[in-house]
Amino acid sequence: MYKCLVIEDEPLAQQVLKKYIADHPMLQLTAISNDALEAQQVLQREKISILFLDINLPKLSGIHFLRSLPDPPVVIFTTAYPEFAVEGFDLNATDYLMKPFSFERFLKAVHKAIDKLKQQGSPQAAEALRFIFLKADKKVFRINTDDILYCEALDDYVKVITTEEQYLVHYTLKKLIDELPHGSFIRVHKSYVIAKDKIRFFEGNYVKVGSADIPIGASYRDEIYARLKDRNL
Q1: Spatial distance between the Cα atoms of 91 and 84, rounded to a whole number of angstroms
Q2: How would you classify the pairing of strands 50-54 and 74-79?
Q3: Cβ partners under 8 Å of residue 203, min gap 6
Q4: Are residues 137 and 68 part of one domain?
Q5: Nearest to residue 95, comparing CAs of 164, 192, 178, 177?
Q6: Helix (H, G, I), strand (E, B), or coil: what is residue 176?
Q7: Is the pTM of this model over 0.90?
Q8: CB of 105 within 8 A of CB of 116?
Q9: Could you give the CA distance from residue 193 to residue 180 in angstroms, rounded to a whole number?
Q10: 98 contacts 79 by C-beta, under 8 angstroms
Q11: Which range of residues forms the domain containing residue 59?
């Protein structure tokens, strides 16, 4: 579990973040602070992994507060003011959530935060990247990326096919690829991405993944077969 601290003075935003964090199986809400000075006490007694930080706070702004921290957690800014985005990223913030934000956008930010924790050497984060969290049928599913066979784009949705189940998620294929482990999946068609270790064989313009014949798009064919020739798939 990743301990989270929310620094936010708007009750509605507090409730949204509280619900989103509760819906994520890998997150644990440690505290909600109304201002930065109150949050400082939490940081002194708790090891916080992810900080959800509003910028427009009373007493001390989120940006000034972050600058004051000698060893800050991974930070995700939450704000209604886009003009602060550049300054926030200059402070090495992991992501910037514009209010109001969806649960899907929240998931993407959390995934980036876990990825950053992994780069910092967190063993918990390395384990967490073996999973993605997707919302389907009004539930949030934790899906082991090792179980994914392929993903298929269907208009505004993506069908995720695993060894056991199928999930229809309101996502774009590009967004999903961004969240999958880098190097483990390959796009073979504008509508398909496949798990490289689930490939059984190639034949003509198709690739066999599990029991499915996945088409290879014309614009992807040359690159795929060149990488096969170089054994660099």
Answers
A1: 11
A2: parallel
A3: none
A4: no
A5: 178
A6: helix
A7: no
A8: no
A9: 10
A10: yes
A11: 2-128
Kindly list the distances between the CA atom of residue 230 and the CA atoms of 186, 195, 233, in Å, as whole numbers in the listed order: 16, 19, 8
Structure tokens at 83: 């003009």
Other CB atoms within 10 A of residue 75 CB: 22
Q: pLDDT digit of tens for each residue in the chain (233 aa)?
A: 799 999 999 999 999 999 999 988 889 999 999 988 889 889 988 999 999 999 888 888 888 888 888 888 999 999 887 665 555 555 678 888 988 999 989 998 998 898 888 777 655 555 555 778 888 888 888 888 999 999 999 988 999 999 999 999 988 898 888 778 777 889 999 999 999 889 999 988 999 998 999 999 999 888 887 777 666 67
CATH number at residue 76: 3.40.50.2300
Q: Are strands 2-7 and 157-162 parallel, antiparallel or unpaired?
A: unpaired
Last residue of a domain, one of 82, 112, 128: 128
Task: Tokens for 66, please give them.
Answer: 């972050």
Q: Would you call 117 exposed, middle or buried from its count of C-beta atoms within 10 A (0-12, 13-18, 19+)?
A: buried
Angle between helices 11-23 and 103-119 (to 10 degrees): 70
For residue 119, give both structure tokens. Answer: 């780069």
Residues 212 and 202 sit within 8 Å (Cβ to Cβ): no
